[in-house]
Amino acid sequence: MDKGAPEGAKQVLGADDVRRATTRIAHEIVERNRGLDGVALVGVQRGGVWLARRLAEAIAEIDGSHVPWGSIDVAFYRDDIAIRPVTPAAVSELPFDIDGATIVIVDDVLFTGRTIRAALDALVEYGRPAAVQLCVMVDRGHRQLPIRPDFVGKNLPTSADETVVVTDLGVTIG
Amino acid sequence: MKHLLSIDDLTLDDVDRLMELSDHMSEVNQRANPKVPALRGTTVCNLFFESSTRTRLSFETATKRLSGDVLTFAVSESSVNKGESLRDTIETVAAMGVDAFVVRHGSSGVPQQVCRWTSASVVNAGDGWHSHPTQALLDAYTVRTELGRNAGFDGLHLAVVGDIKHSRVARSVSRLFAKLGARVTFVAPTTLLPVDPEFDHTADLDNVIGDIDVLYLLRMQRERMREALVPNLGEYTTRFGLTPERAGRLREGALVMHPGPMNHGVEITVDPAELPGAVIGHQVSNGVAVRMAVLFDLLGSGAVAR
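Above: the input entities. Below: the structure tokens describing the complete assembly.
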């Protein structure tokens, strides 16, 4: 999220916590996908992109493997076009073959699940992955669709009207 | 935005937003399956009262690539021939449930008029001598991508050559490029210049040919010859055509553009395929992306208050 934390927001994770969570998730991705063969990370524009890059760096440090990463914009696949203003962020960049790959979709916050639904639809336009996994820094609950993450930085109980902001400097809620 | 009627209605922010959206649409168009579900459930009606191939097909393709439905209204086969008024036609089609009208008409101001008769969005696809905003936007997008001009056209020199007076393309292109910071020069015989030209003008193409970044050739319409505004097409070509000799004096990297359809042998006597700066084919493919951006902005992202 590029918007700043709202006034009076409460910091729930600091920069160190986010860094440690990133390293832990990187370990989990390596463990779950032995050999990392055919694994690629796809960050959801915008909030997921920096995290996908960080995870690729962390995996390289742990394992020495080069895991390709890219970004995907899901605006044209959303189900709330013409209900609220929907504007694309940055053009999707997937510099690797999706067919047969194991794709880890990466986002900052998992909330209703609708963005991930859109991301799944957007992703399959580029090919047929062998499997798709989901990684988020914060799972804040309130799901409206049957979507569940495979890798989570932090489970954060929230009320539906709170705003959660995740950056590499930390996580705030308010 | 609710309507796109003229370049004059667009702020620089609007132009920027449409250009950025066009980048997204170009990416969609490069895919094996160039289609997104963004405008599912919307219907766009093409109302063309004047003949057109590329603009009509371009809007049709743009709508389909956004998963919208297209109604194409061919005036020659319609009840307009039975004397139905424009207003009745619009109200009838609107009653079928149309979200946007794309209107081309030989008279200036018709798209503005259509807005008053329907709650749907209206896109001007060319009205009389007045305006052709999507053509100007696709031309600006072409220059922006070909010359890497994302930040605007400051210092860019555009020459528009041909029948400036009767051309909605010339009017829209020159105003949009000027809005983006370009210097504009009209090149035309005085009979084909407006009475009070908005921009610098000359009747000598050779004066400017070595000093421009974009050479924009207009279609020379044959009826202008009947009206005796140009003595004959041969002389027009000699004075205003892009000949091999003139092509050799273009700056390195200068672009050559044409809105089509081209009169080979009149405004251009070189084969565009052999001109390194000719981007006429790119204009056509960018046209689809830019029209997708306009439709998405009118019916999708811009349909609710930001």
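Note for the figure: Chain B has eleven helices and nine strands.
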